[in-house]
Write a structure and sequence with these properties.
Length: about 160
């Protein structure tokens, strides 16, 4: 039912990054990527996804219905992206949905695609799923200027600029 959030979301133990950011105010990841997974994951007891929400891609892979489109949007996503959303199958969501964390690379790409501001996770609280701490993602927002970009790093003494030759 739209607007009603499953108890699993409300009662979930937040990660350090999620404690400052509520994914229910975003939903960009659910409307930006194809969510594909091994077909048996949809039928596993732990997931038990409704057949109507699973689209078969190949003999081995399936995806969440609605995400295998030019403009993907998971059919389990309820609400308006960037405002208030919920997942109709939050407790049964497949592994790709469980792997995205607030502020990680996938989150950043999705928020950029929806023209939402980037999330910055402090280096001391690295978001799960990130292999290395990366600088915050910059996105082109209305009103942004070239002065909003960081200055290039200085070259070390042994480096040469190949563009000058």
């Amino acid at each position: 039912m739209p607007g009603k959030h499953p108890d699993a979301i409300v009662d979930a133990e937040p990660t350090a990054a999620a404690s400052r950011f509520d994914c229910r105010d975003c939903g960009a990841c659910c409307a930006s990527f194809r969510v594909s997974f091994y077909w048996a994951e949809a039928e596993a007891d732990a997931y038990g996804l409704p057949e109507a929400l699973v689209e078969q891609l190949s003999p081995w892979y399936a995806c969440m219905a609605g995400t295998n489109a030019a403009a993907p949007r998971c059919q389990a996503l309820q609400g308006k992206v960037g405002q208030r959303v919920s997942c109709a199958v939050y407790r049964q969501r497949p592994s790709p949905c469980r792997e995205v964390e607030p502020g990680d690379a996938q989150c950043g790409k999705a928020r950029l695609a929806w023209r939402l501001p980037a999330l910055v996770v402090p280096p001391t609280e690295k978001a799960p799923g990130l292999a290395v701490t990366a600088p915050p993602m910059l996105c082109s927002l209305p009103g942004a200027t070239a002065t909003d970009r960081p200055a290039p790093l200085p070259k070390s003494s042994g480096e040469t600029d190949v563009r000058q030759s």
